[in-house]
Design goal:
With about 130 residues, the protein is an all-alpha fold. The protein is about 70% helix and about 0% strand. Helix 3 runs parallel beside helix 5, helix 4 runs antiparallel to helix 5 and helix 6 packs antiparallel against helix 7. It is elongated and about 45 Å long. The model has no long low-confidence stretch (mean pLDDT about 90).
Length: about 130
């Protein structure tokens, strides 16, 4: 059974944020957007429905296509959803397909993650006050 997907952004917003919208309904609408290759819209509905299988489908598609915009949205939803290897694979694919800005975004994101990890793991001398 197909659900009539909203064609107007206000109707989309209302459906997405209505208390009457069930997770099942949101996931169905997300599937319809996905079938129409409107992946960002589909992601909105999958996130709201907390449909992890559908979120993983979006992630696989994003990595395959080098779509770091979708990966960043997934990463914002759940910091553990996108692995370092997936970011690297997406960056390579984006580079191969001539989307320099998407590739650069992934590289910068990984560099920032590395910097944050190094900052946490390296205690600088004198950074922590001595107990008296």
């Amino acid at each position: 059974m197909l659900v009539a997907i909203p064609t107007n952004y206000i109707k989309k917003r209302d459906l997405l944020h209505s208390e009457k919208s069930s997770k099942e309904m949101l996931a169905k609408v997300g599937r319809e957007f996905f079938a129409l290759e409107r992946y960002s819209d589909a992601l909105d509905f999958f996130e709201k429905a907390k449909d992890l299988n559908a979120l993983n489908e979006i992630k696989q598609l994003a990595v395959k296509n080098g779509d770091t915009f979708l990966l960043s949205r997934l990463d914002r939803f759940d910091r553990n959803l996108v692995s370092r290897d997936e970011w690297n694979a997406a960056a390579v694919k984006a580079q191969e397909t001539g989307r320099e800005s998407m590739s650069n975004f992934a590289v910068k994101r990984l560099a920032a993650a590395d910097a944050a990890t190094n900052q946490k793991s390296e205690a600088l001398p004198g950074a922590v006050p001595l107990a008296e």
